[in-house]
Amino acid sequence: MARSVLAAAEEHSALPEAVRETRDDLSAALDGLVEAAMQKLPGAAVDHGPRAKDVDTRLDAAWSGTYNWLAGWARLPNEPKAKIAAELRERLFPEGLRFTQLRYPQQWAESNTRLSLIDQDELDKTFETLGGRSFLDALRETHKAYGEVLGITKPQEEEVRATRIRDALSRLSDALRAYVLQVSAMERKSDPNSSKLVEQLLKPLANWQSPTTSSPSAPKPAAEAPKPDPDSQAGHGTC
Questions:
Q1: Claim to verify: residue 121 and residue 176 sit in the same structural domain
Q2: Which of the residues 55, 145, 208, 214 has an alpha carbon 20 to 30 A from that of 185?
Q3: Does pLDDT of 214 surpass 60?
């Protein structure tokens, strides 16, 4: 989501200084999150040989298989669950399978981000709804093996790494909130173009929705984008 927000901002060069500053802060926070996910702890053994290549191939297959499974569901005509599958695919694969072609540590970080999203938003329930438990099990199993062979994760290190990632994610959330406040403050009732620009910049947030079902076990919907506080200074930004 943060990458999509930053991509939307890159399409507009003439942004107010306050917006540019919060955009840069958001970019730095995202880099920090990726670094926290990739960081190896002292003493970690690294394997980039044949074993790593084998596990990498298996993880690629697990993710591409999941993508194709969701794509097949999404194409079914007159099927209520097709929309659920399409939304889940968009959540997990906003840029398709490009991340599976990254270098080993970066690919692990991208895979870890997606599995963390599944856990955080309880998307495992959506997998269950679509009959995809085997896909999720394969993803978790191969991802764990990938981290171990790369020396990124070990059982005793998981809590330390999780703490680092939580802290980095908190900083990213704060940076995103500040950016949204500054962008929202650009809107002027007297200037229709300002409303259009704000809509374009925040469109990735509006599109970022959790898959929903009518089942009692449906995953929780994504939180709405933060709105500016009319009493705060940030809510009275300048153009």
A1: no
A2: 208
A3: no
| Rounded Cα gap, residues 198 and 208, in angstroms | 16
Mean pLDDT of the chain: 80
**Nearest to 213, CA basis, from 7, 12, 73:** 73
- Mean pLDDT value across residues 176-188: 88
Q: Cα–Cα distance between 87 and 107 in angstroms, integer? A: 22
Give the end-to-end CA distance of the chain in Å, rounded to a whole number. 25
**Co-location of 181 and 231 in the same domain:** yes
End position of a domain, from candidates 153, 183, 214: 153
Mean pLDDT of 61-88: 96
Q: What pairs with residue 188 in β-bridges?
A: 191
- In this structure, are 213 and 136 located in the same domain? no
Query: Confidence band (pLDDT; 50, 70, 90) for 198?
Result: confident
If asked whether residues 38 and 49 sit together in one domain, one would say no
